[in-house]
Amino acid sequence: MNKRIYTVSVINHYVAGLLEDDMLLRKVSVTGEVSNLTYHSSGHIYFTLKDDKAAIKAVMFRSYRANGLKFQMKAGDKVVVTGSIGVYEKGGMYQIYAEQIEPAGEGELAAKVEALKKELRDMGMFDAAYKKPISKYCFKIGVVTAPTGAVIHDIMQVSERRNPHVQILLAPAAVQGESAADSVAAALNRLDGMNCDVIICGRGGGSLEDLMAFNTETVARAIFSCNTPVISAVGHETDTTIADYVADLRAPTPSAAAELAVFSYDEFLSDIRKKQQQL
Q: How many other CB atoms are found less than 10 A from the CB of residue 157?
């Protein structure tokens, strides 16, 4: 009897096709602990996802990182990886091709955020009718953020470049952790009583859990109650929080918020000259 003999390449390609054709494995979410983590110079991320009984190799290609990974993943983290199961044919190894990686538990957090968002929307707190206009010329700008770090540094840099005569008042606040929501709300209330022309409220990027203070009813109500216009500037351009919906204006980043709030001194002088010429 003649037996068919296959090459390794053919077998690996055949198995890869079986996995690719399996509808269940085209989009699957797997939870486990991160180990053997490598951030490659190519921009790809290689790691192993394991539990107490088994392990699976995983890779996230560079093209998915911007939208698919919003926190600094490290070995030992418990995560949920969403992607497709396939075969790395050259090595004969099956693995998960990650399209999104979230800290374990973010699914529940996201559901809570969506429920609160619906509740506040139904109450009218996102309505355009409540949005306060922001003056073209803001001379006194309040900032609610951490007292150290990139956010206040970036805002000060933009302010010094655009208009060194503008006054920046920092109300330092914890922007992450259990006390962050109360801290941000207290800082907003404090600045609201200091005759600011506008308040920038924000922080740098992070995971959903990192940004949770800005997804709370406490901070939402503090923003809504402010008599001073508030610009939200939370995270990166792809991050959206409840604070963004309640604020009078949303900026994609803290630097962008400063660009919106700090008027150009050169443009200010130009406007004055034009008005003088019209007299």
A: 12
Strands of 198-203's sheet, edge to edge? 167-172, 140-145, 198-203, 230-234, 249-250
CATH code for the domain in which residue 193 is found:
3.40.50.261
pLDDT tens-place string over residues 15-30: 888 888 888 888 899 9
Query: What is the C-alpha to C-alpha distance for residues 265 and 262, in angstroms, rounded to an integer?
Result: 9
Question: And the tokens for 27?
Answer: 């989009």
Coil vs helix vs strand at 223: helix
Considering the chain, what percentage of its residues have pLDDT values greater than 70?
100
Domain residues for 230?
Answer: 124-267
Counted domains in the chain: 2
Confirm whether 193 is domain-assigned: yes
Query: What CATH number is given to the structural domain containing 45?
Result: 2.40.50.140
CA distance 214 to 211: 6
